[in-house]
Amino acid sequence: MKTESKLEKILSQGHFVVSGEIGPPKHANPEGIKKHTALLKDYVDAMNLTDNQTAIVRLSSIAAGVHVLQAGGEPIIQMTVRDRNRIALQSDLLGAYSLGMRNVLCLSGDHQSFGNHPTAKNVHDVDSIQLIKIVKDLRDEKKFACGEELKGNEPRFFIGAAANPFADPFEFRVLRLEKKINAGADFIQTQCIFDMERFERFMALVRERGLHKRAHIIAGVMPLKSAKAAKYMQQSVAGMIVPDEIVNRMEKAADPRAEGVAICVEQIKHLKTIEGVAGVHIMAVMWEEIIPTIVKEAGLYPRPKVE
Amino acid sequence: MIIAEGKPLAEVAGLIQGARKVLVVGCGGCVTVCLAGGEKETGILAAALRMLRQKEGNPLETVEVTLTRQCDPEYVEMLAKYVTDDVEAIVSLACGVGVQFLAERYNKWVVPALNTKFAGGTVEHGVWEERCGLCGECILYKTGGICPIIRCSKSILNGPCGGSQNGKCEVNPEIPCAWQLIYDRMQALGKLDLLMEIQPPKDWSKSRDGGPRKVVREDVRLA
Amino acid sequence: MQEFEPKIIAFCCFYCAYSAADLAGSLRLQYPANIRVIEMPCSGKTDVRVLLEAFEDGADGVYVLGCMEGDCHFLKGNFRAKRRVQQAKKILDEIGIGGERLEMYNLSAAMGPRFAEIAREFTERIRKLGPSPLNKNYASSRQGEDGRQAANSMKAGEQE
């Protein structure tokens, strides 16, 4: 075990993990976060706190993580390299660890043109792979990015990275995943899967290079609420592929929400059978209440207990 | 070259609204090539300003001069005989460098007629694109001659990010994903394995972030 | 009401437009005397500066006449002219004179009647628009004259 992370422990015990996601609010009141934590903590092993997702200003990931921890959940804080330089990133890593955070997901971040502050300067001092290496070096080499040594009390994070089998170039996606693992990623969360066939091809390449043995690969899923949501994902979100048959199922369904849940549960059950998939990451955007249902119907309840 | 684009006429007119006589100074360098501030554009701007002011009943006298370049003191000096006491403002159609050189040399109200945009080149007649980020430490040999600093919207050195789809950047479908281009080029060159090396964080102190920069060639300095 | 006589400059390419003008003359076709024709080797030789100069020097309307698209003697000159006219129209809008006072037309050397028709149509357009804003003083000074009915559109306009 490299860290004190509960997520790492559950993975190391061979369980098929379940993670969820909470989008912090666009204001300064943490009650919603606490409520969602109470709702989810028995159904997921850990929950991601997004970092100004889509470049929209939200309560910070680290602060949200502290609220989750206090409410009894296991937080995975996210860090994009869009908004902070290496000085601020390392400083926040030290601070987050001191507040009890143990899992961090390192991301590039959506371009600020997508968000509510498109005129902001973006930072991108380092990219996501360089950040992974920085977090790893803090933990294992006990060194800052400049090479200076930490005199003890280094932050020991369980390091996560994202992978997107649905972006291009396809062949390079697996090589880039390998680069992230080489840089120090311990676990991977993928973009949400609708094109199962492409994901299977991706996993075949992953297994070919033995990457599933070097890092825990957690597959992303998202329950669709409506046909409109499905179409939006298909047409307007860069890096996401939604096959027409999924859109059709949603359009023809008498109860779209039930259909969305059913599709999600089918996907999870299938993902459990793919070699190399260590768990599932359920992104129920603005629909966190549905996660307990999905976890139960997918046969993943109850969750293992660790202290 | 440096690519610039004309400011809206109303904006330039607003900057000189009190003046009765202005110099309108073009530049024979980059802005001539990108059709923003050469002799022709200078003539058009001066005529447009005169006509706009005439229409307002507040006539404007203009003197049009196009210098070989506005970024060299010897050429800037050639403007001196036109900078008479009755000149109340100088409208410069050079890039930001030229505007500053004129302002430094002449004790007059100097205003820019252009918005200086980027370092780029001509892709076809009438179309110019950004190519160089002026980062101070060129790494084009690592990426098959395609700059990741400026052609990637996120300046990623270990790309691509997850938003690259069908070879396009997530920011704008008209922008090609730089890392798709780099991947294709390196594959064609048989050097894909170079992309597996983890590029370390960039030294931005050599770029704008380190403060205003200077280059000196001691061997050519005479004094 | 005093009618104002528009001053219109027509930049005509030698190969088509000017020949059409000649033909209109030989056919004794009537067209407004408001048109001052300027012969160009090609419509594409017309610089934006010269279009603006025409307005600055007092023209109420300007048009460029070139060959039919695809038939330009210099191959693409009339396409260049078209683009430049578009650019100049934008500038005229920004100045506040109005891009409608400038136009581009295409015709062939055999189209004498069309030459006359364009002259008539454009003169009417400018007449309706009134004098160029740069000529306001000139126009209002004309109003004070002996109140005679304005010269009809067939008589030559007065030199300033």
Blueprint (SSEs and pairs):
The complex is a heterotrimer of chains A (307), B (223) and C (160).
Chain A: H1 6-12, E1 17-22, H2 31-40, E2 46-49, H3 61-70, E3 75-80, H4 86-98, E4 103-107, H5 128-141, E5 158-163, H6 170-183, E6 187-192, H7 196-208, H8 211-214, E7 216-221, H9 227-236, H10 244-252, H11 256-271, E8 277-282, H12 291-297
Parallel strand pairs in A: 1-2, 1-8, 2-3, 3-4, 4-5, 5-6, 6-7, 7-8
Chain B: E1 2-6, H1 9-15, E2 21-27, H2 30-33, H3 39-55, E3 61-67, H4 73-77, E4 89-92, H5 96-105, E5 109-112, E6 114-124, E7 127-132, H6 148-151, E8 168-169, E9 172-176, H7 178-188
Chain C: E1 8-13, H1 17-26, E2 35-40, H2 48-56, E3 61-66, H3 77-95, E4 102-106, H4 112-129, H5 136-143
Parallel strand pairs in C: 1-2, 1-3, 3-4
Helix pairs in contact in C: 1-4
Strands ordered across the widest β-sheet of chain B: 3-2-4-5
Within the CATH hierarchy, at the fold level, what is the topology of the largest domain in chain B?
Answer: Rossmann fold
Q: Which structural class fits the helix and strand makeup of chain C?
A: alpha/beta
Largest interface: A-B, 37 and 32 residues
Specify the biggest β-sheet of chain C: 4 strands, parallel
Q: What is the total number of structural domains of chain B?
A: 2
User: Which geometry of chain B do the CA atoms define?
Assistant: elongated
Shape of chain C from CA axes?
globular
Helix content of chain C: 40-55%
| Stretches with pLDDT under 50, minimum 5 residues of chain B | none
Main sheet: strand order of chain C: 2-1-3-4
Q: Mean pLDDT of chain C, nearest integer?
A: 86
Strand percent estimate of chain C: 5-15%
Q: Tell me the total number of β-strands of chain B.
A: 9
The overall strand count of chain C is 4
Structural class of chain B: alpha/beta
Unreliable stretches covering 5 or more consecutive residues of chain C = 138-160
- Fraction in beta strands of chain B: 15-25%
Provide the gyration radius of chain C in Å: 16 Å
